[in-house]
Amino acid sequence: MRGARWVVGAGTNGCWLGTYEPQTRHWLQSLLGPGRVFFDIGANVGFFTLLASRIVGEEGAVVAFEPFSENLSALQMHVRLNRAQNVTVVAAAVSDRAGRERFGPADNPAMGGLAPDGSIDVVTVALDDLVRDGAVRRPDVLKIDVEGAELHVLAGARRTLEEARPAVVLSAHGWELFEACRGLLEQIGYDLHVAKGGREDGDYLLVARGTER
Fold first, then answer.
1. How much is the CA Rg of the chain, to the nearest whole Å?
2. pLDDT attached to residue 62
3. Residues 6+ apart with CB under 8 A from 109
4. Which residues of the chain have pLDDT under 70?
């Protein structure tokens, strides 16, 4: 990311210090390459969006999904400042169906998520619908970090997972959610690797690779 332009105060200091989520960064760098299609689901202010944009190059594509207006403004600014022409920003939350749902912001803008009692109304999309309709290219890699809605994202992408077999780098918050996501991916036939266990803080990082059927 050396030389990238960054909005002062956007995201954590680790984004511009080079210390932000090193395990996720490692896995994405190993899974992505020129010409690949990357979905950044829960893009926040765009750190992984910009990283992927550089890696996939002009022939590749990045689709960044972010519903929260504060994050969305910084994300769009980062895309413009870095002239990331291979990036498409979708101002929506990814879930198991298209429509509208409630979103609960948090004190830390990176920690908000879909919640029945949330104070904000946001647009939702399902990946299967977007891929089926040709609104986006079929993905090669998904990064999913949506503060509790990970299982809904997978449910709304089941056909895409079964047919396109993209690699998945998924953050799950809490053991029950982690087990549910792992069970769904195993059922579809993915090979799984627990990159980070949640014994200390309850946060898991799961890397899933789709084998050919």
1. 16
2. 98
3. 44, 45, 68, 70, 71
4. 212-213
Q: Please, what sign has the CA dihedral across residues 76, 81, 82, 86? A: positive
Per-residue pLDDT of 173-196, as tens digits, reads: 899 999 999 999 999 999 999 999
For residue 212, what pLDDT is reported? 64
Tokens 């912001």 sit on residue: 105
**Which is it for the CA torsion 130, 24, 178, 165, positive or negative?**
positive
List, for residues 63-74, the tens digit of each pLDDT value: 999 999 999 999
Question: CA separation (Å) from 8 to 16, 170, 171?
Answer: 9, 27, 26
For the four alpha carbons of 153, 159, 162 and 167, in that order, the dihedral sign comes to negative
| Cα separation, 201 vs 207, whole angstroms | 18
